[in-house]
Amino acid sequence: MDKRAHRYCVIMCGGIGSRFWPYSRARLPKQFIDFLGTGRTLLQMSYDRISNIIPASNILIITNGRYADLVREQLPELTDSQLLLEPARRNTAPCIAWAAWHIAARDPEASMIVTPADHVITREAEFERSILEGFDFVESHNALLTMGISPTRPETGYGYIQVGDPAQGNISKVKTFTEKPDIELAKVFLATGEFFWNSGIFLWRTSAIREALHKWVPDIALAFDAAAPETYTDHKAESAFIAEAFPGCMSISIDYSVMEKADNVYVETVTFGWNDLGTWSTLYDLSPKNSDRNVTQNCNVLAYNSSGNIFAIRGDKLVVVDGLEDYIIADADGVLLICPKAREQKIKQMVTDAKVKFGDKYE
Amino acid sequence: MDKRAHRYCVIMCGGIGSRFWPYSRARLPKQFIDFLGTGRTLLQMSYDRISNIIPASNILIITNGRYADLVREQLPELTDSQLLLEPARRNTAPCIAWAAWHIAARDPEASMIVTPADHVITREAEFERSILEGFDFVESHNALLTMGISPTRPETGYGYIQVGDPAQGNISKVKTFTEKPDIELAKVFLATGEFFWNSGIFLWRTSAIREALHKWVPDIALAFDAAAPETYTDHKAESAFIAEAFPGCMSISIDYSVMEKADNVYVETVTFGWNDLGTWSTLYDLSPKNSDRNVTQNCNVLAYNSSGNIFAIRGDKLVVVDGLEDYIIADADGVLLICPKAREQKIKQMVTDAKVKFGDKYE
């Protein structure tokens, strides 16, 4: 058995993408949308990218149960045992724990990459090279490895990782994790060259992450220990167990519960054209612009005295706009949003306000 | 036969209302829309209003042939002989001439009121009183009478009529007609008290308007003289004649061809709460506002940092808007328009631009 056969991938796609509301909706979140107009959804692009380096049967999708049909439709090649359906939303630590126990029951030697479904990676060959370097490292070290992106601007929307002592190749020990900095601090981070964006892409041996979970969040590890390994290889038994055990897990992120605490945490600094596609502004920055610096998605636009806008309209529609600068104009499924890009952090609140005022039909 | 039986009304409803695009469309212009949310379209409201003072069988609708089904649907009480279907768009002079010849063939003693279908009149009792005063006057004088609205602001979007020597009651000779003035001149007009808005509502005996057409635009009068009176009382014969004769008429307004030239032109100054509903701004001014001074039509709106806007959205939709002041936000039938109210005069050009760039599907 070559080492490739022991490598697994877990694609997390349970988010609702509310920062892209109304284009991303609770019933059709952004990872299930062909956001870049390439003909493949973000989930499909993530699958395509990873299937170049991981055996297709070793790729798992973990998502909320309500999105099962969307995943089956978009990735018909998957079998049911590759689809881990969460019965409740519990952030990344329980999600990753389940996947680790599920994989370990099949292959005690396994290593795994965990990646969100909704990121964009533009340099695919470099991505593959980086991931393979990471696998080689975690397979020969008891290491929890995270991918650190070389920053290109003083971004205040990301967490940062400070590199410590070099380990091997592009991999170093992690010195510190820092939450989203303010702009002044972000500029300092950028200038030092020691700080990298926290991508949320992780690699480790399943034995290493299980050990770390036992050590740092034992409640979660013990919850998954409660089932015998055979349970995790029997689809029906596993579903029944998870339906009981998963909702009882605390809701906590893997960063907060493990990565920021463990002492065997490493970062691989990478440059594979990563974008987390986290907000309308990041999509705007990533997208090709016309001569007015406007970005259009799926619509015809006539723009007068207008620039710096992003138009994302579902359905064949004409948008005529006069006198808008740096706005988001998004229209989908019964909701039209017109909001300055600079105030996009308010969109989550708007979704809540809409729900309070008009019920959940617009969620 | 009492004098009421000799009174006719011609409701002109052939316009496409492109200043209200995209809410008003070539295939469904504004007169066919329940624009004020009252449950009746503007055409129906015009019909209701006039049917209080004119026998229902004496009310004619003149419109473009493409709108025949819309009129029949909205006013099912009409017979086909009450529906004058223009085979081409030729402005108001040929339209009014045809109606006058059509009525004269039925009743040589007839008097008639001509009114657009898309105006709003809020004081109905005062409207009725004014119209009856006008009929009494034109029935006893060889007069072409126009309704002059007492101005309430220095409006630059209307033509003005200056009153001359008093004739009878609220009726005077017309001294001058003035096209849309600039704001300075409009203020002077308002201050003098001599100037009234030209409403486009006319009253006269059919014999008087036919005589005036013969004198001032004989080409048009002779075109309609070419058919015998019996032709105008035979629906099939009339349609065949009009199909030939009407498109050959020059396209010219009744104001320019007759009213501004004739010497028997009178104005009745009225105060019946008239609004020509000519633009989004006039609709905004006319409509009830919420606490943010926003006006909403047919939609749920969540507005943040936004005031002075008008939202007109067809279909059950939620609009969420942040940071818009004094805009038109209109969405209907595949077109979304976002335009400052102050630049609404550009909308006609936008319709043309859209047609050039994307074809007539958005017209």
Short description:
The structure is a homodimer. With about 375 residues, chain A is an alpha/beta fold.
How would you describe this structure to a colleague?
The structure is a homodimer of 363-residue chains. By secondary structure, chain A is an alpha/beta fold. Helices cover 31% and strands 26% of the residues of chain A. A 5-stranded mixed β-barrel of chain A has the order 6-9-7-8-10. Chain A has a 4-stranded mixed β-sheet with strand order 12-14-16-17, with helices on one face. The first copy, chain A, is globular. At the A-B interface, strand 13, strand 15, strand 16, strand 17 and helix 11 of A face strand 13, strand 15, strand 16, strand 17 and helix 11 of B.
Question: pLDDT under 50 segments of chain A (min length 5)?
Answer: none
Radius of gyration of chain A: 21 Å
Classify the oligomer.
homodimer
Strand content of chain A: 25-35%
Query: Which two chains share the most extensive interface?
Result: A-B, 33 and 33 residues
The tally of helices of chain A reads 11
- Which structural category do the helix and sheet elements of chain A fall into? alpha/beta
Average pLDDT confidence of chain A is 94
Q: SSE order of chain A in H/E notation?
A: EHEHEHEEHEEEHEHHHHEEHEEEEEEH
- What percentage of residues of chain A falls in helices of 4 or more residues? 25-40%
